[in-house]
Structure formats: C-alpha cells, structure tokens
Specification:
single chain, elongated
Length: 347
C-alpha cells in the first residue's frame, strides 16, 4: 500500500495559531472577515489573544458549535512564514500563473474563489526591522514592538497583490484548503527578490531608462516609496548584498538589471580621483569633501538639501550663508549639488 501523502500545511496546522472567523460589517459598511476564538470569545492576531489560539484540528471541530456564525477558519502568520494574497484574478490569469511558478510553494484559492493565496517561508534575518516603543493608554506602561521597516510593507494597488511577512507584519489569513498548488511550504527568499526584479523591469524595462528617471527625480524618496508600493523590495534585497554602505541606486540597479553594486566609498573615490574638484577653490573643495563624507551615512536627498550646511562640521568652516556665497550664491551652489549628484551616479 502506498504511503499516505503528508499534508503540506501540517507544520502550520499543528501550531496554536488558529481561530475562526465570521462575516461582519466594517467601518465603511463593507463585509469583512472578523476573527473569533474557538470558544466564541473575541479574538485577533495581537499577542494578548494568543491564549485563545488553537490548532487547525481544534478550530475545525469548534466550527460545529457555531452553525450560521462561523464562516471558516484562519491563522495568524507566524514568524518565518509569508502570505502572498492576490485578489480578483482568475487562476488562469498569466500573472497568477507566473507567481505560482516563481514561488513554487503551497497555494490555494481564496474564500471568494476569485483570488489566490500563496504560503511559504522566508529568512527573517534578512528583513530590516526596528523596535518601536509604545505607551499603553490605559496603564501608562511602555511596551516594545518589533516593526517592519516602512519601506518593506508591500501592498500593490496596480495588481491587487499584498505580501505579509509573519513575525513583523501582524496579519490573519483566512484558510480555505482548496489547494491549487499542493506543494510543501518552500523557502522563497530568492523568489521575493526575483519578484522585485520583475516589478522593476515592468516599470522600467531597460537600465538606461531607469537611470534617466532616477537622475531626473528631485526627491528620490518619493520614487523609492512608489517602487515599494509597486512591489520592489529595496530593503529586503539590500540585506542580501554582502557590501555595506550601498546606495539605493545600486540596490535597484542590482535588483532590476543585475549590475554589480558599488559601495558609497567606491563612488566617492571615483569622484576624488577624477579631477572634478580641481576647478573649485581650496575652501570649496573642503566643503565638497565634507558633503561626500556626509553621503557615506546619509541618502542623496539629505546631501542635496541645503539644511545639511547646519551640521557642526560645516559650521566649523563657516556659516551656511557664507558657504553658499563662496560658491557664487544659491543658484551656483545648487548647480554644484546637481553636478555632484551626476558625478556620484556616473555609470
């Protein structure tokens, strides 16, 4: 007799992370999935409810006690696992098929039947996080919470796709069990990087096109925020690059076009040996060297903002107004910053 196939979701089903859910009207009047505990009490994904979470088998059994109320079961995504949620796209959609091939992990149809859930694993150590301190409004107690870097949360409005990472994003997944890719839960860190690459190339198919857009963008952070919203995981990929002090430009060039990233130190050294500084006075060369030193630990938007002249290093040279005047006035100073930016990003 052949061996019984192992349930690919068994490792999650055995965890005490499960709860039931019901349909309830949200604040906007739309029906939404509201979790509740196997004993019928209030429940959710916050740690304070963890004592009410049960295993999958216990959640399914508990549904029998709430006929007409319980619409299904779901689970809190635990650390090291991810949930990729694609809405309003048929299984046959080329985009969905591409994701199924790329992630090659367990997948199911959504509750509506018009979407797809992909579940898998990822390397939590490669995700940039920070500790956020919050004060409890009732007790005044200060609590610490692990948060995801704001650039890493992904909700792509252009293709109805959301990616949630357990351990840092607090999310409930409504489980259906209607498998469309009955594979084990796979480690998909590389797939997330590849997904970022395809999204960047969808926006800018060619490297030179991306480079032109980058140089033309006055506020780089606005472009970065838009790319993250479009599913380009900049900070995730940065953590996979061995070199430290790598510019966002190099991370994106690596993601989308497989360009070998340069460190900020390497970009600065190229400027210093190019002879570019020779046309400036000794005093102005000193200012530019300080600007380049500041660039090592700051983003390009900070470098090209005149407020940087209020830093102590610059004040030691001269007052901000005097520094600007030394370059021939504000217009000439801004021209210099524009030139420096172009020199930094010489291909």
């Amino acid at each position: 007799m052949p061996d019984k196939k192992t349930d690919p979701m068994q490792e999650l089903k055995g965890m005490r992370i499960w709860m039931l859910w019901e349909w309830a009207a949200g604040r906007d009047g739309k029906m939404t999935k509201k979790p509740f505990a196997a004993n019928g009490r209030t429940c959710g994904t916050d740690e304070k409810f963890s004592g009410r979470w049960v295993t999958y088998a216990e959640a399914v059994e508990a549904m029998k006690k709430f006929p007409g109320r319980a619409a299904g079961v779901g689970f809190k995504i635990p650390g090291g696992y991810f949930f990729l949620d694609v809405d309003d796209k048929a299984l046959e959609d080329p985009y969905v098929q591409m994701l199924l091939r790329r992630f090659a992990s367990h997948a199911e149809t959504s509750v509506s039947g018009n979407g797809t859930h992909i579940y898998g694993k990822y390397d939590l150590s490669q995700i940039p996080t920070y500790i956020k301190k919050e004060t409890d409004k009732k007790t005044g107690e200060i609590k610490e919470r692990l948060c995801l870097d704001r650039q890493f949360y992904m909700k792509n409005p252009h293709n109805d796709t959301e990616l949630y990472l357990g351990g840092v994003t607090n999310r409930f997944a409504a489980y259906t069990g209607n498998a469309v890719n009955d594979e084990p839960l796979k480690e998909c860190t590389q797939a997330i990087i590849d997904y970022s690459r395809s999204n960047l190339r969808r926006l800018y198919p060619y490297y030179e096109e991306f480079r032109k857009i980058w140089l033309a963008q006055k506020k780089k952070q606005e472009l970065l925020d838009q790319l993250v919203a479009d599913g380009v995981f900049i900070d995730f990929v940065r953590e996979t690059i061995p070199e430290s002090h790598v510019d966002d430009y190099d991370v994106l060039s690596y993601i989308g076009y497989e360009k070998q990233p340069l460190t900020k130190e390497e970009r600065i050294d190229r400027i210093l040996v190019s002879g570019y500084l020779d046309k400036f006075s000794k005093e102005n060369q000193g200012v530019i060297r300080l600007l380049l030193d500041a660039y090592r630990d700051r983003n390009i938007d900070e470098l090209t903002n005149m407020r940087i002249l209020n830093m102590p290093e610059f004040i030691q040279i001269n007052a901000p107004t005097a520094i600007v005047k030394g370059f021939g006035g504000k217009e000439k100073y801004m021209e210099m910053l524009s030139e420096i930016e172009k020199q930094i990003y010489v291909a």
